[in-house]
Amino acid sequence: MKSGFAGLIGRPNVGKSTLLNQMIGEKIAIATSKPQTTRTTTRGIYTRMEDGEPAAQIVFIDTPGIHKPKNKLGSYMTEAAVNTLKEVDIILFIVDSPYEGEKSGDGFILDLLKKTDVPRVLVINKIDRIGPEAFDQIYRSYEETGLFEYITGTNALEGKNVPELLAELEKRLPEGPQYFPEDMITDDPERFLVSEIIREKLLLYLEEEVPHGVAVEIEEYEELPDITRIRAAIYCEKQSHKGIIIGKGGKKLKGIGKAARLEIEGLLGTRVYLETFVKVRENWRDSDIAIKNFGYRPER
Ligand SMILES: Nc1nc2c(ncn2[C@@H]2O[C@H](COP(=O)(O)OP(=O)(O)OP(=O)(O)O)[C@@H](O)[C@H]2O)c(=O)[nH]1
Ligand SMILES: [Mg+2]
């Protein structure tokens, strides 16, 4: 069978995680309108079945957006993304706006791609936001680089051109083993997925500077016969942020907790009792220990 690893690379917020979820057909990676949502590499497994048998398998690796880091967490995030380039059979470079030239963030990534000898595919995402002329212009500027074996435009939210993309990727993979069972869609543990769902709701419900400094740690996880009891600590970097997260009369945190609980119940297929509380840990994004504890620097 055709099988292999495919890395999703790009600047923050271009739609990598949304595209991953669309290709897998389930939500396994959180995606929000805030840049730098993804903090660590996540594997999503796509297995194409034919007559009830696995016929091809693509193991996608979603990565944090490549950006100029402002703290240790940012350095590890970018490092994790750049390292992925060396571990994969094919690279999907995802962009979402006009080609801004060699000096832009996309230009930096293009330079990295020039140094690899792995097949490269370009995905121009969010085509719903641009007209055909703008699309042609982006298409041509990337085609001229001669770096890409295949170029497509997608709307990752709606899945436009995604089946065709999957077929093109499969064609370009080597013959190989089935790496994971066909019913497996990610190798992330449930506990981590739960912490990510809570973090996603924090990002969605909070404004600007607070979200980037939040982290979630699952302190208790107990699977009882009819309910899963979860206690999660939400970390932020400042006392003032703690107040914002909790909100007037605890209203904000209640909303975040409820949205998270509903989604976790869907994921686990059980009722969930979710207890959340907020802690302050100053500058944790520059602490190696904290970054490791939160699972943002996993050893793979
Ligand atoms: N209009 C439109 N929005 C999209 C599309 N794909 C993704 N988005 C939105 O773009 C935002 C960013 O999506 P993500 O999937 O989190 O982007 P990402 O590249 O994983 O971002 P980081 O993890 O921060 O690097 C979200 O609000 C998505 O809903 C698309 O094709 N069209
Ligand atoms: Mg992401």
What would your notes on this structure say?
It is a single chain. With 300 residues, the protein is α/β, with parallel strands linked by helices. The protein has 2 domains: 2-171, P-loop containing nucleotide triphosphate hydrolases (Rossmann fold, 3-Layer(aba) Sandwich), CATH 3.40.50; 190-293, GMP Synthetase, Chain A, domain 3 (2-Layer Sandwich), CATH 3.30.300.20. The chain is 34% helix and 24% strand. The chain contains 9 helices and 9 strands. Strands 2-3-1-4-5-6 form a 6-stranded mixed beta sheet, sandwiched between helices. Helix 6 runs antiparallel to helix 8. It is globular and about 55 Å long. The protein starts with a strand and ends in a 7-residue tail after the last helix. 38% of the residues are buried. Magnesium ion is lined by residues 16-17, 31, 37-38, 62.
Distance between the termini: 25 Å
Structural class: alpha/beta
* Spatial order of the strands forming the largest sheet: 2-3-1-4-5-6
Which molecules other than protein and nucleic acid are bound? guanosine-5'-triphosphate, magnesium ion
Question: Average pLDDT across residues?
Answer: 94
Unreliable stretches (pLDDT < 50, length at least 5) are: none
What overall geometry do the principal axes of the alpha carbons give? globular
| Fourth-level CATH superfamily of the largest domain | P-loop containing nucleotide triphosphate hydrolases
